[in-house]
Amino acid sequence: MKTRYDDIPTYITRDGSTIRELMHPALHGGQNQSLAEAVVAPGAETRLHRHRITEEIYHITAGTGRMTLDGEAFDVAPGDTILIPPGAAHCIRNTGEEELRILCCCAPAYSHDDTAVLDNP
User: Fold this and answer.
1) b vs e for 45-57, b when ≥16 Cβ sit within 10 Å of the residue's Cβ?
2) What percentage of the chain's residues is helix, strand, coil (to nearest 5)?
């Protein structure tokens, strides 16, 4: 299976980011994981949330941000990769002047039903 970036529509996910599902079992086949690109606008922040069963990896490809992961906050920039274990509360704020772009790998694949939105700190 192959997808083309420009052919994939975007949508707003439960955490408030704009998502493009680059590869997802429900859309493209596969079984155990998904890969998406999240875009967070300058000055915007995703909603604090957690996934009950999904392990997630964020890889920053453009922009700068401030990641909160289980109460710890730290800066992120292109080339940084963050492991988000199941159950860990997390959100990310764009601290720069350009779009913050994040590759998000989820195993098992992303599901709205596995996303619990929490109150932002």
Assistant:
1) bbebbbbeebbbb
2) 10, 50, 45
Q: Which of 53, 57, 42, 51 is nearest to 13 (CA)?
A: 51
3-state SS assignment for residue 91: strand
Domains and CATH numbers, the chain: 5-117 (2.60.120.10)
- ∠ CA 72-75-68, rounded to 5°: 30
Q: Around Cβ 97, how many Cβ atoms within 10 Å?
A: 9
- For 9-68, the pLDDT digits (tens) are 999 988 888 999 999 988 888 889 999 999 999 999 999 999 999 999 999 999 999 999
CA–CA dist 121, 100 (Å, integer)? 20
Task: Locate 101 and state its tokens.
Answer: 């772009």
Q: What is the pTM of this model?
A: 0.91
Number of CB atoms found within 10 A of residue 67's CB: 20
